[in-house]
Structures are given as C-alpha cells and as structure tokens.
Design a protein that fits this description.
2 copies of one chain form a homodimer. Chain A is α/β, with parallel strands linked by helices. In chain A, 42% of the residues lie in helices and 19% in strands.
C-alpha cells in the first residue's frame, strides 16, 4: 500500500477551496500546505531544524540536481535522502523534467526521452520516464513525480497537443516501472494556456490512477487571468479524493487564488530566493532590507511575527549583515519568508473552516498592495 | 566596580598552566577559554544559539569593523552589541589597532593616533586611544582593550622600542578616559621578539593596573621557538591575580603550548576561516572535505565528537554541500571547528586539575601530526 491518503475534512461553501489532511508514513499534514524547496538536498542557508521550526512538513528536493551531484547512487548508499540530509518529515522529489527544460543545454526531445547536456560540466545526459523513476526510487522520497515535458510559454496549439500526448505516454511508462510502493507517485497535468488541452490532460492523467495530481506549466510567463484559468481548467477534472499540487507557485496572492480554485499543495524557491536578494515578505508587500531607510530601524521585520528572525533581530541588524555580506542575514530572511508562507497557508485553513476565505483574500490583497 | 574578577582555582605543579574562573556580570566562565570571533557582530555563518551550543562563553567582536559598519552610534542606539547581535553572554571588543595596522591603507602613525584610509571605501579616518575607548564604550562589550600598535614582524629593535613606549603612553591615555566602569579594560603587552622589551612592556603595563593583560603581536610570522619565548617573556611579569589573554592565536598546538606557559584566554578566526575553505579540525590533524576520497564516506567528521555536525551529518553530505556551494556546508564545519577548540580547552582544564598536562600535550601532538 502506498503511504499517502488524502482526507477531505472540509469543503468551502463559497469556493472550490478545501481543508484536508495528507496522511503519510512520516506523519499527517494539513492542507493547504506550502512546501519549502531544498534543491540540492538542503533548503538554502537553513538547517533541517530551522525548516521545521518554520512549521514545514513536506519539503522538496530536485531530482535533476541530486542526480548530477552528488549522484543518486551516493544518496542511495547513504540510506536515501532522509538520513543523507537529516530530514525526518516527508520529502517530495520532482521528476527532473522541469530542470532539464529550464537549465540543461542543447535539449533533444525524443519519444524515448530527452538528450541534453549538463549545466554543470556540459557532459551528455539522457533522462527518460523510466530513468527518472529509477533515480527517484534511489533518492527515496515519500512522494515522487511523473516525468513530463514542461514547454515554454507561449507555444502553438499544435506543439502543446503533441507535448501533452507524449507526456501522457511518458506518465504511463513511468507508472509501469515504479516498483517501490512505499513512494506515492503523482501524475502531472500539462496543456499550457489551452483550456481544452488542460481538460484532456487532466482526464487522461486521472484515468492512469495516480496517488495525487500536479498542475505543471503554470506561472511560466502568462498573465494573471490566464494563470487562474489554467488552474481552473485543470482542477475541474481532478478527483476530490486525491491531493492537488500546483508546481512552482509561491507568490502569496497566487497561493490564495489557487486555494480558492481547489489546490492543496504548493512549492516554490521564492522565499529563499527573495532572501538572497535581501527581501522580506510582509503583509504589506515585499520590503528590501538593503534600503538605507532601515539603517536605524530597530523594529522587527514584521509586527506580531513569531518567527525566529522577528523574535530576536531588528531590521537594522539584518541590514548590517546583508551590507557586510554575512550569511546570517540571508538565513534570517529565509526563515522569515518561509514562516510567512507557511503562516499564510495556516490562515487559509482557518478561513476555509470559518467560511470567510473570500473576505480573507480581500483583506490580504488590500494590505499586500498597500505598500509602505 | 568593574565586572570582572579572576579566581585562580588551581595552579599546575609541573608547568605555569592554571585553571581559573572569570567572574563577570554575564556569568562565570572557566579558563583556559577559547573565544570565537564575531568580527562584524556575528560569528561567521552561525546564529548565537549555535555558538552557545558549541560551548562558547565569551565571544569577540571587532571594533574597527563595527566602527566602519554599521557605526558605533547605531550599535549604541540599538542598546549595545548584546541586544544588537542577540548574544547574552560576555563580549570582548578589541581596540581596532590590529585591524588598522593589518587592513587599513596609507597609515600614518603619529603620537596623537593613527591616520589611515578605510579598507571599505578609502575614506580618511583617525583612530586614537581616546577614540578607541569612546567607540568601545558605545559598543558596550564586557571587556574592552587598550589601543596599541602592533608592528609587523620583523622590525628593528629601535623601531620596536619606540613603538612599545608609544603603546604605553597610549595605554595611559586610554585608561584615563575610560569612564564606563562596567566594562573591564585590558592592557596589551607588545615588544615583538625582543625578550627585554616584552619584559619591560609587561612591567610598565602592569604598573598602570588593568583588569587583565593581553599579549599582542604573537603569531605574526615568527618561528615556533621565538613564538613561545615571546609568550614566556611576557607572562613571567604578569600578576597571578589577573587573566592573561593571548590575542589572535587559535592553532591547537599553540593553544596547548601557551596554556603550559600560563595563558588563560584565546581568540582566533581560525575555526571559521578553516571552515570557509572546507577544512575540519580533528585530533589527527586538519582534513579537507573537498577531497574526492570523502565522496562516499558516510562517517561523521570525527569519531566520538558530540557536535551538531557530527551527530547528524556525514562527510559525504558535507562534501556535497561544499561542492554545491551551499552555505550549510561551511556552517557545519564552523560548528565542528569551534566545538573542537572549546573541547580542547575543556580537556586542558581537566588535564591541569589532574596534573597530567604534559602527558596530554604529548598525546595530542603525537595524534595531531600523525596525519591520515
């Protein structure tokens, strides 16, 4: 039996939003959930204890990166990702597909898989549905993903149709070779900005009976209206008894809008990437701590925030660390930003349970765009 | 009354080594003690909680760096270094002298002080005994240092004699303006590799009656024999009822040899600097984790080490972090290296109490040079 069961606890009356619980061997986690990203087997600048102190349950790791470095065999010899990186809560690995299409060089997409060159040393590599599953089996995450093509935006209808068909054939091949029944396997809905392809991709992927369904290829450059239509078009055809995961989306407003449309799971590098550039997420929008106006600001990043950074440090100190190129600065901002997004999903759960999700959205957006 | 009292608990029978306790407003700390360095108001890559978990009591911060950035006034407005950097144990600030002589550009040493240009932006600056004390009063450390000249090695006898005389006059001027009696003030013995100048510097500095005495200008390029002679020449003329602090020395063998010669306090950037370059301190010498031989080494950095890094991570994982440029790698090595030096001083205390310090030295050195 696969170690994942989605329990729908409460369906919002006014929207498609839902509050649920993901039951897994490494614990039960409420949804909507934000999953921090540990690309190379570490959430950038943070220890696993810090990630957990931010309230994190499931975290992500990237198959493409770990396959290239240190290599799937080394992670397997270490006993899998959990002992290797010292994280005892659930881990999700992606298929490597997205990174092949976004990072790798000289890609050649064939029916059997993708030939490409490593972004690290230029060496020739090949990734297929079977190879992706084999690597993910070695990495040993709790949730693994089907190998898919994530086309750029925009592409022609014809290209996207061909791509969705291939991704479906790849999903079948991957499912066939996935032997480790302890790892849940998710299918991925593609289809770009074409509603009928999203519908078709969702329906056909659901027929293959995965443990959960992801929506890929969203937030790749399209406008806001299109983005939300793509989510709507996919979620409408996904079953209510399985979790729905919107890949790579972490903008707070996008998370709220996607939850309203029935999405349960999110991941994004946004909180750690913003931190690296000196930014903190606050209810009144992003602020950049490098700004000279924080030089003598001895208040915390955000009022009433209970994260480690806000409990112990001032904007002035964090600014000093950033200006002085001290790594603790980015670390404190990473903690705050991850805590912020996890707290956002906690507030969304409460709002769903109390039937005030749309009011919450309006309040959040009013505050978010009312920049200081 | 000054918040520092040295209590001599046990004088080694075979050497000049001693076990004691430094009683301060922020707690009592046993000596010999290793003090990690937080140059810019943060021990590089670590949180204050991690520094304390390594066993640290007193830590250092650098007056020169904090004066330039963020500025002494900002730290004062924050309530001093302790709340600014979130460290509630004692802090020691140096005088800024050493950095002026090692980092700053276009130095012009006059009787009134030193004119120089900032290493950050080239701006013209002036540091004097009075200004150094005024800055350190604002930073608010528990122990502050006299402003001294630290000449390079080697210099002529004449130069060193003139320098020691000036450093003595500077020590008097600094002591005169030090108004904040909550901060202990240490004098600094200079004199380079000239035993008679070390003796004279020690005797004259002691006459000024400081709360403790530092030995400066050691480990600046001289050979091992000279180094230990310089320590001997200084310590012999320091009073038994005051702490003795050897500035900037953190090599494990040097610490042992200096403890044998009667030194109580040490600071050095060595553990964090080694970490930045991928090195771990072990009883069998330094090892570099970037080495390919650790690629599949799933053992901890050191057997029987109880530091956070050794309890949870393998050499293979730390190597992966270093190769992948993930900051957690340097952080884990910093934790291990600081823990290593603090544990060394703990073992030295035990060896002193049990009258087996020389045996401990021999065992340590045999293991240290018996590299793997």
């Amino acid at each position: 039996m696969v170690n994942l069961k989605y329990e729908l606890k409460y369906q919002d009356k006014n929207t498609k939003a839902r509050y649920g619980i993901l039951h897994m061997a490494r614990g039960s986690y409420e949804t909507p959930i934000f999953m921090p990203v540990g690309t190379q087997g570490t959430v950038k600048t943070l220890s696993p204890e810090e990630v957990k102190a931010c309230g994190a349950g499931i975290i992500l790791a990237n198959t493409y990166h770990l396959w290239l470095r240190p290599g799937a065999d080394i992670v397997e010899k270490a006993g899998g990702l959990h002992p290797f990186m010292n994280y005892d809560r659930p881990i999700l690995t992606d298929s490597g597909g997205f990174q092949v299409f976004s990072l790798a060089k000289k890609k050649d997409i064939k029916e059997e898989g993708v030939y490409f060159k490593s972004h690290i040393d230029g060496s020739s590599l090949f990734l297929s549905p079977e190879e992706s599953i084999a690597i993910q089996n070695k990495l040993g995450a709790d949730i693994i993903m089907s190998f898919d093509e994530c086309p750029p935006y925009p592409v022609t209808y014809e290209y996207m149709k061909t791509s969705v068909e291939r991704t479906l054939r790849w999903a079948k091949r991957g499912k066939k070779v996935h032997a480790n029944t302890k790892q849940a396997l998710f299918g991925i809905v593609q289809g770009g900005a074409f509603s009928d392809l999203r519908k078709w991709s969702a329906e056909e992927t659901v027929k293959l009976d995965f443990d959960g369904y992801a929506i890929g290829g969203v937030s790749v450059g399209e406008d806001e209206v299109t983005k939300y239509q793509m989510i709507d078009a996919a979620v409408s055809y996904l079953p209510p008894d399985k979790p729905r995961y919107l890949m790579g989306v972490g903008d707070p407003v996008d998370i709220i809008e996607a939850v309203i449309r029935g999405v349960d799971m999110f991941d994004c590098v946004l909180p750690t990437r913003l931190a690296r550039h000196g930014n903190a997420l606050t209810k009144t929008g992003k602020i950049n701590l490098r700004n000279a106006k924080y030089k003598e600001d001895f208040t915390s990043l955000e009022d009433n925030c209970s994260c480690y950074a806000c409990k112990h440090y001032s904007k002035a100190y964090i600014r000093h660390l950033l200006i002085s190129k001290e790594t603790l600065g980015g670390r404190l901002l990473s903690i705050h930003n991850i805590y912020f997004l996890i707290k956002l999903t906690d507030e969304l759960k409460e709002a769903i349970k109390e039937n005030r999700l749309l009011e919450y959205r309006d309040e959040f957006i009013t505050s978010w765009y009312n920049k200081r």
